[in-house]
Amino acid sequence: MEQLPFPLAQEPDEADHEAGRKLFAGNNSDFLKGVVAMSGLPPADRMEVCFAGRSNVGKSSLINALTGRKGLARASNTPGRTQEINYFSLAESHYLVDLPGYGFANAPLPVVEKWQRLLKQYLSGRASLRRAFVLIDMRHGIKKVDEEILSLLDNSAVTFQVVMTKADKIKAQEQDKVLSQVRDKLAKHPAAYPEIVVTSSEKGGGIATLRAIIAKLE
Protein backbone atom coordinates (compact mmCIF):
# COMPACT_ATOMS: atom_id res chain seq x y z
CA MET A 1 0.00 0.00 0.00
CA GLU A 2 1.33 3.45 -0.93
CA GLN A 3 2.18 5.59 2.08
CA LEU A 4 0.27 8.88 2.00
CA PRO A 5 2.24 12.06 2.53
CA PHE A 6 1.43 13.59 5.90
CA PRO A 7 -0.06 10.42 7.40
CA LEU A 8 -2.38 10.57 10.38
CA ALA A 9 -0.66 10.30 13.75
CA GLN A 10 -1.10 6.85 15.21
CA GLU A 11 -2.39 6.04 18.67
CA PRO A 12 0.57 6.20 21.10
CA ASP A 13 2.03 3.00 22.49
CA GLU A 14 1.55 2.25 26.18
CA ALA A 15 4.71 4.04 27.35
CA ASP A 16 4.04 7.21 25.33
CA HIS A 17 0.37 7.20 26.34
CA GLU A 18 1.40 7.06 29.99
CA ALA A 19 3.97 9.85 29.56
CA GLY A 20 1.30 12.06 28.03
CA ARG A 21 -1.23 11.17 30.71
CA LYS A 22 1.22 11.97 33.52
CA LEU A 23 2.26 15.29 32.01
CA PHE A 24 -1.34 16.49 31.84
CA ALA A 25 -2.64 14.68 34.94
CA GLY A 26 -4.56 16.26 37.78
CA ASN A 27 -4.26 20.00 38.23
CA ASN A 28 -0.89 20.29 36.51
CA SER A 29 -2.09 23.20 34.35
CA ASP A 30 -2.85 26.78 35.25
CA PHE A 31 -3.25 30.16 33.59
CA LEU A 32 -0.05 32.17 34.01
CA LYS A 33 -0.47 35.49 32.21
CA GLY A 34 -1.66 37.31 29.11
CA VAL A 35 1.07 39.06 27.14
CA VAL A 36 0.67 42.08 24.82
CA ALA A 37 4.38 42.82 24.21
CA MET A 38 7.61 40.82 23.97
CA SER A 39 8.81 42.43 27.21
CA GLY A 40 5.97 40.67 29.03
CA LEU A 41 6.96 37.13 28.05
CA PRO A 42 7.90 34.85 30.94
CA PRO A 43 11.53 33.65 31.13
CA ALA A 44 12.38 31.11 28.41
CA ASP A 45 13.36 28.59 31.08
CA ARG A 46 11.30 25.64 29.91
CA MET A 47 9.99 24.01 26.77
CA GLU A 48 6.90 25.57 25.22
CA VAL A 49 4.46 24.72 22.46
CA CYS A 50 2.00 27.15 20.93
CA PHE A 51 -1.44 26.75 19.43
CA ALA A 52 -2.54 28.86 16.47
CA GLY A 53 -5.78 28.84 14.53
CA ARG A 54 -8.34 31.08 12.96
CA SER A 55 -11.21 32.37 15.07
CA ASN A 56 -13.78 29.73 16.07
CA VAL A 57 -11.56 26.78 15.13
CA GLY A 58 -11.89 25.33 18.65
CA LYS A 59 -8.56 26.35 20.16
CA SER A 60 -9.86 26.99 23.68
CA SER A 61 -11.83 23.74 23.63
CA LEU A 62 -8.74 21.80 22.58
CA ILE A 63 -6.56 23.30 25.32
CA ASN A 64 -9.27 22.56 27.87
CA ALA A 65 -9.58 18.97 26.62
CA LEU A 66 -5.80 18.44 26.75
CA THR A 67 -5.52 19.74 30.31
CA GLY A 68 -8.77 18.20 31.51
CA ARG A 69 -9.81 21.60 32.86
CA LYS A 70 -13.05 22.76 31.32
CA GLY A 71 -12.73 26.50 31.97
CA LEU A 72 -8.95 26.94 31.74
CA ALA A 73 -8.88 28.60 28.31
CA ARG A 74 -11.79 30.85 27.52
CA ALA A 75 -13.02 31.70 24.05
CA SER A 76 -13.87 35.28 23.24
CA ASN A 77 -17.48 35.85 22.22
CA THR A 78 -16.24 38.11 19.43
CA PRO A 79 -13.83 36.51 16.92
CA GLY A 80 -10.58 38.42 16.68
CA ARG A 81 -11.23 40.33 19.91
CA THR A 82 -8.64 38.64 22.11
CA GLN A 83 -5.28 40.22 21.25
CA GLU A 84 -3.10 38.63 23.92
CA ILE A 85 -0.67 35.74 23.87
CA ASN A 86 -1.97 33.64 26.75
CA TYR A 87 0.50 31.53 28.73
CA PHE A 88 -0.47 28.42 30.68
CA SER A 89 1.94 26.52 32.89
CA LEU A 90 2.03 22.74 32.52
CA ALA A 91 3.57 20.89 35.46
CA GLU A 92 6.88 22.70 36.06
CA SER A 93 8.36 21.65 32.75
CA HIS A 94 6.25 23.17 29.94
CA TYR A 95 4.34 26.21 28.82
CA LEU A 96 1.25 25.94 26.64
CA VAL A 97 0.87 29.13 24.62
CA ASP A 98 -2.48 30.20 23.17
CA LEU A 99 -2.02 32.62 20.27
CA PRO A 100 -4.93 34.93 19.39
CA GLY A 101 -7.30 33.66 16.74
CA TYR A 102 -6.56 35.13 13.35
CA GLY A 103 -9.11 36.21 10.76
CA PHE A 104 -9.99 39.60 12.15
CA ALA A 105 -13.37 40.45 10.69
CA ASN A 106 -14.27 42.64 13.66
CA ALA A 107 -10.90 44.07 14.70
CA PRO A 108 -9.68 47.56 13.69
CA LEU A 109 -6.73 47.57 11.27
CA PRO A 110 -4.23 49.11 13.76
CA VAL A 111 -5.07 46.34 16.24
CA VAL A 112 -4.49 43.69 13.57
CA GLU A 113 -1.15 45.21 12.56
CA LYS A 114 0.03 45.43 16.17
CA TRP A 115 -0.88 41.80 16.81
CA GLN A 116 0.80 40.64 13.60
CA ARG A 117 4.03 42.40 14.61
CA LEU A 118 3.92 40.75 18.03
CA LEU A 119 3.25 37.33 16.48
CA LYS A 120 6.22 37.66 14.09
CA GLN A 121 8.49 38.74 16.94
CA TYR A 122 7.32 35.87 19.10
CA LEU A 123 7.72 33.19 16.45
CA SER A 124 11.15 34.34 15.30
CA GLY A 125 12.58 35.15 18.72
CA ARG A 126 11.42 32.51 21.18
CA ALA A 127 14.25 29.99 21.60
CA SER A 128 12.25 27.73 23.92
CA LEU A 129 9.44 27.21 21.37
CA ARG A 130 9.63 23.58 20.25
CA ARG A 131 6.60 23.26 18.02
CA ALA A 132 3.58 25.19 16.81
CA PHE A 133 0.31 23.33 16.48
CA VAL A 134 -1.86 24.88 13.79
CA LEU A 135 -5.53 24.04 14.21
CA ILE A 136 -7.60 23.47 11.08
CA ASP A 137 -11.36 22.89 11.17
CA MET A 138 -12.08 19.46 9.67
CA ARG A 139 -15.23 20.86 8.03
CA HIS A 140 -13.36 23.50 6.04
CA GLY A 141 -9.73 22.49 5.45
CA ILE A 142 -6.96 25.02 4.91
CA LYS A 143 -8.23 28.45 3.90
CA LYS A 144 -6.37 31.47 2.57
CA VAL A 145 -6.17 33.02 6.04
CA ASP A 146 -4.44 29.83 7.28
CA GLU A 147 -1.86 30.03 4.48
CA GLU A 148 -0.59 33.31 5.93
CA ILE A 149 0.30 31.76 9.29
CA LEU A 150 1.82 28.68 7.63
CA SER A 151 4.09 30.91 5.51
CA LEU A 152 5.01 32.94 8.58
CA LEU A 153 6.02 29.73 10.38
CA ASP A 154 8.09 28.69 7.34
CA ASN A 155 9.87 32.05 7.33
CA SER A 156 10.45 31.87 11.09
CA ALA A 157 11.84 28.32 10.78
CA VAL A 158 9.38 27.06 13.38
CA THR A 159 8.29 23.45 12.94
CA PHE A 160 4.51 23.26 12.88
CA GLN A 161 2.10 20.35 13.01
CA VAL A 162 -1.48 20.50 11.78
CA VAL A 163 -4.19 19.46 14.23
CA MET A 164 -7.59 18.88 12.66
CA THR A 165 -10.41 19.92 15.00
CA LYS A 166 -14.12 19.07 15.19
CA ALA A 167 -13.70 15.70 13.49
CA ASP A 168 -16.99 14.59 15.02
CA LYS A 169 -18.85 17.22 12.98
CA ILE A 170 -18.19 15.64 9.58
CA LYS A 171 -18.75 12.17 8.07
CA ALA A 172 -15.77 9.86 7.51
CA GLN A 173 -15.98 9.92 3.70
CA GLU A 174 -16.03 13.72 3.73
CA GLN A 175 -13.00 13.75 6.04
CA ASP A 176 -10.94 12.00 3.38
CA LYS A 177 -11.67 14.78 0.88
CA VAL A 178 -10.68 17.50 3.36
CA LEU A 179 -7.51 15.65 4.41
CA SER A 180 -6.51 15.35 0.76
CA GLN A 181 -6.81 19.14 0.38
CA VAL A 182 -4.80 19.68 3.57
CA ARG A 183 -2.03 17.33 2.41
CA ASP A 184 -1.77 19.15 -0.92
CA LYS A 185 -1.44 22.50 0.84
CA LEU A 186 1.10 21.25 3.39
CA ALA A 187 3.38 19.88 0.66
CA LYS A 188 4.31 23.49 -0.15
CA HIS A 189 5.47 24.30 3.39
CA PRO A 190 8.98 23.21 4.41
CA ALA A 191 8.34 23.78 8.14
CA ALA A 192 5.39 21.35 8.21
CA TYR A 193 5.89 18.30 10.42
CA PRO A 194 4.99 15.24 8.32
CA GLU A 195 2.11 13.97 10.42
CA ILE A 196 -1.47 15.18 10.99
CA VAL A 197 -3.38 14.82 14.26
CA VAL A 198 -7.17 14.39 14.02
CA THR A 199 -9.07 15.47 17.13
CA SER A 200 -12.50 15.98 18.60
CA SER A 201 -12.47 17.97 21.82
CA GLU A 202 -16.13 17.09 22.40
CA LYS A 203 -15.67 13.32 21.99
CA GLY A 204 -12.06 13.09 23.20
CA GLY A 205 -10.71 11.73 19.91
CA GLY A 206 -6.99 12.29 19.36
CA ILE A 207 -6.45 13.97 22.74
CA ALA A 208 -4.26 11.17 24.14
CA THR A 209 -2.26 11.20 20.90
CA LEU A 210 -1.61 14.94 21.09
CA ARG A 211 -0.69 14.69 24.78
CA ALA A 212 1.86 11.98 23.94
CA ILE A 213 3.34 14.07 21.10
CA ILE A 214 3.86 17.03 23.44
CA ALA A 215 5.34 14.81 26.14
CA LYS A 216 7.89 13.36 23.69
CA LEU A 217 9.22 16.72 22.44
CA GLU A 218 12.74 17.52 23.53
Automatic annotation (TrEMBL):
One of its GO terms (cellular component) is cytosol. The keyword Cell cycle applies. Its cofactor is Mg(2+). Residues 45-218 form the EngB-type G domain. It comes from the Bacteria. GO terms for molecular function: GTP binding; metal ion binding. Pfam families: MMR_HSR1. GO terms for biological process: division septum assembly. Keywords: Cell cycle, Cell division, GTP-binding, Magnesium, Metal-binding, Nucleotide-binding, Septation. The keyword Cell cycle applies. Coiled coil: none annotated. InterPro entries: G_ENGB_dom, GTP-bd, GTP-bd_ribosome_bio_YsxC, P-loop_NTPase. Necessary for normal cell division and for the maintenance of normal septation. HAMAP family: GTPase_EngB. Belongs to the TRAFAC class TrmE-Era-EngA-EngB-Septin-like GTPase superfamily. EngB GTPase family. This is Probable GTP-binding protein EngB. It comes from Salinihabitans flavidus. The lineage of its organism: Bacteria, Pseudomonadati, Pseudomonadota, Alphaproteobacteria, Rhodobacterales. The gene is engB.
